[in-house]
Amino acid sequence: MELVVPDELAVESGCSPRELLFGLAIGLMLDGRLTLGRAAGLAGLSKIAFLEELGRRRIPMPYDEQDLTADLLTLRDVFPNREPRQP
After folding, report:
1. Spatial separation of the C-alpha atoms in residues 54 and 41, rounded to whole Å
2. Buried b or exposed e, range 44-73, using 16+ CB within 10 angstroms
3. Lowest CB count within 10 Å: 38, 47, 60, 85, which one?
4. Domains of the chain by residue range
């Protein structure tokens, strides 16, 4: 699929083609339509570079209780003999 953005819209927004793709990628990711990896690919960036750019722009990553649970299970698998520290 080819997406055509009118020149006047690009000029009005002050965005380069790369910035327009980045904005599209962010919007689709935040809407839950693209994963982080796919959004980074659309923006032409690695996952790390995409995350760094989100941080630079102060755009928070969507992260919910289900994500936290999945991360905790992964940590338990990776470090099975470690007890969690209490604050």
Report:
1. 14
2. ebeeeebeebbeeeeeeeeeeeeeeeeeee
3. 85
4. 12-78
- Asked whether 21 and 43 are in contact (CB, 8 A), the reply is yes
* CA distance from start to end of the chain: 51
Distance CA(76)–CA(74), nearest Å, equals 5
Residue type, 13: S
What is the Cα–Cα distance from 6 to 10, expressed in whole angstroms? 7
Decide: helix, strand or coil at residue 68.
Answer: helix
Give the pLDDT band of residue 2 (cuts 50, 70, 90).
confident
- pTM, two decimals, is 0.71
The answer to whether residues 33 and 23 touch, using CB atoms and an 8 Å cutoff, is no
The pLDDT value given to residue 87: 67
Is 53:76 a contact under the CB 8 Å cutoff?
A: no
* The two structure tokens encoding residue 53: 């750019």
